[in-house]
Design brief:
Layout: E1 21-22, H1 25-45, E2 58-63, E3 75-84, E4 89-92, H2 95-100, E5 113-116, H3 123-129, E6 137-142, E7 151-152, E8 162-172, H4 175-190, E9 195-197, E10 203-208, E11 220-228, E12 234-237, E13 244-247, H5 255-260, E14 268-274, E15 285-286, E16 292-294, E17 300-308
Antiparallel strand pairs: 1-7, 2-6, 3-4, 3-5, 3-8, 6-8, 9-10, 10-14, 11-12, 11-13, 11-17, 14-17, 15-16
Length: about 300
């Protein structure tokens, strides 16, 4: 529950935060020539006849979408798989695909990836996603000049052409409004009873009434919790682990908890629905390796059990 240093969204989030190093200048031309030969060979072997864009990107639609077409500042949610020309999968947003290709990372947040176009340092992705429509799926063949250039990793050689398969799930210009609409839909679909809302936009759903008085500043509280997103993905939980204890209103915890805990009592069970501005805000939260922990503008759902500490 502690806030951490926020990192800017970079291409590392789509290459599994691989350690990248620069290639020596002496090798550059030879590697670039080799990249061109391998790319031409790949295009011929796979009967790919589409012309590249002016920048050099190959855009190959798989399924035409019917919704909104993103622009450079649009927020999008995507599924993706990143491969080398030889078929080696080096990154994916799908847990099963990661496990199948032996690249599963327990610290990585699998599922839909939320990004704002223009914030990715891989220009091939920024460009290619703009050709899509919501609900569509496409393959991008991205030369190194639009990808990682002379950077390399254990998996990705310097001057490598990369292949991304992208499924565009959603596109929206106002992420705050988008989250609010998703929250309303979540509440409506759940048909919850005993829903309280506060002026700040926090929602509290009481499942089991507690005893005694509401918690106030200075009370010592013990909490068991599970944190999820609106789509059901679990991002944090201490169930079956050590209980989390603090003194109300708490230090180094998100504002939604500071406010929400005062809506509860001893031995109470309930759900906090925390809007992004009471959570991790427009930046989200990233770990020290650049991996996403909480995406930007994300609504948080916490299933809570609270107890008054003796």
């Amino acid at each position: 529950m502690k806030k951490s240093v926020v990192f800017k969204v970079t291409i590392l989030s789509l290459v599994s935060a691989l350690l990248l190093t620069a290639c020596k200048k002496d090798d550059s031309q030879e590697l670039m020539d080799q990249e061109m030969r391998l790319l031409e060979q790949y295009l011929a072997q796979n009967n790919i006849t589409v012309d590249p864009t002016e920048s050099g990107l190959y855009y190959i639609p798989i399924t035409e979408g019917t919704g909104m077409s993103p622009t450079i500042d649009t927020w999008v949610e995507i599924y993706y798989i990143g491969e080398l020309l030889d078929g080696t999968v080096f990154t994916t947003s799908n847990k099963e695909t990661a496990e199948l290709n032996n690249i599963y990372d327990e610290g990585f947040l699998y599922g839909p990836s939320r990004i704002q176009l223009g914030n990715l340092s891989m220009e091939g992705l920024n460009e290619g996603i703009q050709y899509m429509k919501t609900g569509g799926k496409a393959k991008f063949i991205i030369p190194s000049s639009l990808a990682l250039g002379g950077l390399s990793s254990v998996v990705i050689p310097a001057y490598s052409t990369l292949i991304y398969t992208i499924e565009l799930l959603e596109a929206f210009d106002d992420p705050g409004q988008h989250e609010q609409e998703k929250t309303w839909a979540y509440l409506k679909a759940g048909s919850f009873e005993n829903v309280d809302s506060t002026e700040s936009g926090l929602y509290y759903i009481q499942d089991t009434a507690g005893i005694g008085e509401l918690f106030i500043d200075g009370d010592d509280v013990i909490v068991t919790y599970t944190g999820k997103f609106l789509d059901g993905r679990v991002f944090d939980s201490n169930v079956g682990e050590d209980e989390y204890s603090f003194t109300v209103p708490g230090n180094y915890i998100i504002e939604g908890w500071m406010e929400g805990i005062k809506l509860m009592r001893d031995e109470e069970k309930g759900t906090l629905i925390i809007p992004y501005d009471l959570g991790y805000g427009p930046d989200g939260r990233y770990d020290n390796f650049g991996r996403t922990v909480i995406p930007p503008y994300m609504t948080l759902v916490f299933y809570m059990e609270t107890y008054r500490a003796e």
